[in-house]
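note to self — DONT lose this again. spent like an hour looking for the file last time. sequence + predicted structure for the chain T wanted, 520 res
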Amino acid sequence: MISRTPLIISIAFSVALLALIGIQAFWITNDFNAKEDLFAEKVNDVLNVTSSKLERLDTTRGYKRTRVSRSAVVINTPFVNNQIQQGNFVRMITNQSVDSNGTQFSRITSKDYAFDSLIKNMKDDPSAFNFINQIKAQKKQLQTSSNDVFSKYPSGNDFFKDEYLFESYNNYKQKVDTVLLDSILKNEFKRNGIKAKYNYYLTSLYPGSSHHSNLAQAENMEDSVGVVYKINLSPSNRFIDPEYLIVHFPTQERDVFKSMLGSLILSLLVILILIFSFYYILASNLRHKKLSQIKNDFISNMTHEFKTPISTIALASEMLSDSSINQTPDKQTRFLRMIRDENKRLSVLVESILQTSILDKGEFKLKKTEIDVHDIINTAISNTQLLIAQKNGKIVTDLSATKHELLADKVHLTNIVFNLIDNAIKYTREIPEINIKTFNTAEGLMIEIKDNGIGISKENQRKIFDKFYRVPTGNVHNVKGFGLGLSYVLAVILKHGGTISVDSELGKGSTFKLHLPFDN
């Protein structure tokens, strides 16, 4: 159950992380859609304000109480067959003007009557009061007959063209103040905080009607890709074809995305931190699990390694102290030799562990002297001769290096050559055949130790120099050692400024290559 706990925690954390990423993606999508809707709402507000201002300013033109038109209204006119008859009538002349606030004033004259339409007290002007009564009397007749008059004309345009009245409405395109349109659009977009690039043009929504664009050709924008908004610039005038302002935002989605860039970066940063944290926690758990396994293997191997010499020493001591056994000088010498050898073996084991501790603490120091590498190799071969003889193996040397003297630590260099030869003997199932070769390079001396052992897989080759690591063989302890040998070899070689590499193939053996520079 305990071993399954990290797996369950990892799965739960993975699900939570995926859920969080999904929630973030959902939130970002909703936020993007909301910002697009807000953008569209602001643009529509701008277009409504633009249309309203254009209509109002088209009438006032910004002048202060300036006379703008003179119009004639026919009153008291008889209608025959739904047609206005020329005959007896009264003409009312209206002079219109507006002030700077856009308020319209009218001055009405008829025959001898003249008065202002904004007189507050009609009793103050009897003539005006009488004339107004005449107008009211004719109002009902005009309203009753107006529908009959306009029924002859399907559209207001036909009426105006037929009668040649209100000539200024014949070409509404010329009525749109394009300079004013540009100014209003820029100011309103700026006031609403819209900085996106936009294009626009005027059109009546039928082919070829596009005109006045802020592009070289309005038609090019009609086929462009992007979000398009439109508004009628003359919504209150029913006598002309609608004239639409079309505004196009070619990069709206990109601009909305840019407005979210800060929150997106923050969300992405949070997600990356969570992913990194999850990876770090998972890697740490795996590393701790691996270290725990290595620790257990080390304790098991160390127990096995120490148990054998301790048992041998204990047995030899008992034999020497047993008075019932006939103690001949030869037996005593043999038992004493066993105790001495096993004690030496224990010392070597303890020393290797201490050396590893020294390497970890950074207290590893070399005592460099001028040495002959070939002598070091021959000494190591001599120390392992008994081991190779037990397996009927052989060691073949090809010491071809012409320059084989360099500055190095004699003890440590002897130990690493011994460790490599010892490994070559231990990790073989056949008769050991070991080839040792030396040769010079431009920078130093190369030592190659080749064996016909069991070989090392590609996966394990990356780990064999790790401390305490041993190639997995299950719980079979037919090969002695702590897994400290190659980590020690690597540390000594690096301390000398050299390099070490391995070429190996399962079932065919391994070749270790050591390079020691002359100038180290």
